[in-house]
Hints:
Layout: H1 2-43, H2 59-69, H3 80-96, E1 107-109, E2 112-114, H4 124-145, H5 149-180, H6 185-195, H7 198-201, H8 203-216, H9 228-231, H10 241-266, H11 284-310, H12 318-348
Antiparallel strand pairs: 1-2
Amino acid sequence: MYLLAxxxxxxxEKFLLIGLVVTLSMxxxxxxxxxxxxxxxxxxxxxxPNRAGIFGLLQPLADGGKLFFKEEIxxxxxxxxxxxxxxxxxxxxxxxxxxxxxxxxxxxxxxxDIPLQVADINIGILFIFGVVSMGVYGIMIGGWASNxxxxxxxxxxxxxxxVSYELPMGLALIxxxxxxxxxxxxxxxxNQLEHGWHIxxxxxxxxxxxxxxxxxxxxxxxxxxxxxxxxxxxYHQEYSSMKLGLYLFAEYINMFISGVVMxxxxxxxxxxxxxxxxTWGINQNLLAIIGFVVLMTKALVFVFxxxxxxxxxxxxxxxxxMKLGWRTLIPLALVNMVAxxxxxxxxKK
Length: 349
């Protein structure tokens, strides 16, 4: 009976943590749309949304309500099951990537330490890559099931772009894993707590990873699958109501999770820069809250940079996009990986 009770407490703890992480991702994605419009307005000398609530803070709720109440349209010539499956798959894969991220140090509640990480599996970073690579199926299925030539062309663009940029991203990550020697996200963070942030040792690897993250999230200047001036709104052209909302939300969740992953891999995760938290002598729970706020701050800075880039840099041509990935980023990632391996071998002698 005791073992059964412990298992139920563990399951309840994980379900609560999953609910909190999913809610956090949805809220951040919701207000990232508001930030997108406000930053765009500032850069274009406009005001932006300011009608719904104070400073327009209720605008994301108004947008969500509009999407919920719009008519659901499923084209007669579409593959209906796949047409519905596409946006669902995009949303699920976007949310799953947060499962292995250590959000902060452990909380101490009810006489036990509760880690703020849904699953600390020994292939943590590979799990993220595996789930992210599944996201392309949501785009491909949605574009193909619409039975629209522009949607299909945009989906093919998205698939080829994601496959191309996952290679240099993976190679840049291998250099980090060489330094750490472990795939678990918690170990990657702890290694930075002891030896310094990886951005110090891997500046080129971070730059490659960041550029590839832009392409993986379909963000400008790599938003070719949504090139409205070429493809009539892209792969979700035939979608309406919350099916369209799921695709749009998935992009912003991917953007937020990409910021969290880059903060975890290269900027110490929940580590507070230039201070030693162990000397503060404060409560463990307060320290965990501070660490969570620090990680969120780092991630939101990346979200701001993603938005800033969108409204600053023009979109590439598709041939330029592929050329950058295959002829520039992959060779640079290989050079970075070989140089990292050489330095590690030299230091071990």
